[in-house]
Amino acid sequence: MGITADSTIYELMKEKPESAEVLFKFGMGCVGCAIARGETIKEAAMAHGIPLDELLSALGISNA
User: Fold this and answer.
1) Which of 9, 19, 35, 45 could form a disulfide with 30 if both were Cys (CB 3.0 to 4.6 A apart)?
2) What Å distances lie between residue 47 and 2, 13, 15, 29, 42, CA to CA?
3) CB of 25 within 8 A of CB of 15?
């Protein structure tokens, strides 16, 4: 199973640790956030007011 918008930030960081740099560029401090274990990429984008498609593209994740 690959990473999708419904994967948690924790799962993203576990599978693609280089994603931390992308998250920081978007102003997301998710790497050290306690919520990251249960918050999905989609939820994090919404919480930070970031367009999901833009974030997924930067992370190299398909929105399919």
Assistant:
1) 9
2) 23, 18, 22, 12, 9
3) no
Q: Is 8 helix (H, G, I), strand (E, B) or coil?
A: strand
Burial class (CB in 10 A: 0-12, 13-18, 19+), 45: buried
What is the pTM (predicted TM-score) of this model? 0.85
Confidence at 3, pLDDT banded by 50, 70, 90: very high
Place of tokens 């939820």: 43
6: closest CA among 57, 62, 58? 62
Name beta bridge partners: 40: 8
